[in-house]
Amino acid sequence: MSETRRARWSLSEFLNMVELRSQTWCFVEMREWAGFRIPHNDAILFYAVLEGTAEVIGATPKPLELASGDVVMVLSGNSHAVRGHRGGTPGVLEFLHNGEYVDVPPNIALGRGRATARLLCGRVKVRWPGGQHPPALPPILNLNVNESVVNFAALEAATRKSGAAAILTRAASLLFATAFRAHPQSEVIFRDSTLHEPIARARQVIETHPFTDWTVELLARKVGMGRSNFAARFVAEVGRTPMEFVTDERMKLAAQLLETSDLKIAEISERTGYRSEAAFSRRFTAHFGMSPGKMRKYWRRSHRQSAASAGSATLQ
Fold first, then answer.
1. Exposure check for the chain: N or C terminus, fewer CB within 10 A?
2. Three-class SS of residue 125?
3. What is residue 191's predicted lDDT score, i.e. its pLDDT?
4. Which residues touch 257 (CB under 8 Å, ≥6 apart)?
């Protein structure tokens, strides 16, 4: 009991451990009688109304009316629809549903006639603290840009050149933290979080900082436990030793850097906690069944194929 009490986190630590990742962003212009639908999914759907009015149907018991400046994040994963003020029969917006990867968000026009709403939309992958969707999480989080520290005019201007998807994802993280902290259920969600358990906390610390020169003793001290008790309990709850878990997380980070950066293999080796590029390459190849160089070629080929199918589109 005393160990668990020493391992309790603050709300800031909890929010810092919520990891949002996305390269799926687009601007949607809805014209008369237009709308779109998103089937059930395991991502956060992000909608910010830049101009006009819209409504979200299905995410909450009653339709959620949105006006210019409103931001809503659908957390439930439920199937829902977004439509303009005249309704219409929405089809699936494949760009968001499929999670297309882009660098600069495309413009997608829906329907015909005059424009009634313009939205910034994103599909955001989330890793929750402790690896589990909090049971008390509300179906949506919402706020108005006037309540936010994000300057939307400057944000939109920043989306017109390379790197826009990364900027939007960082802004979404800030908006999520702002809306979560203001929600009346936030304290309940945080209080019930499994991160009050020392092993869950150790896992999240490793996942967030896999490049640290961890030892079992250092991890045990981090969560307020003795070394032997921590090591035994970690294996019992996770099924791997602490250092095996560290290696797995380092490999995940290395694969992510190979996919999303132009860092050299030696730089990735250093950033993932390996002092020797050769040792890193051997470990990586044993873990994934291919060398770091081959995996980078795979990701680049995959992204070229995705980019060829993205860009500006018009759905009617």
1. N
2. strand
3. 65
4. 263, 268, 271, 272
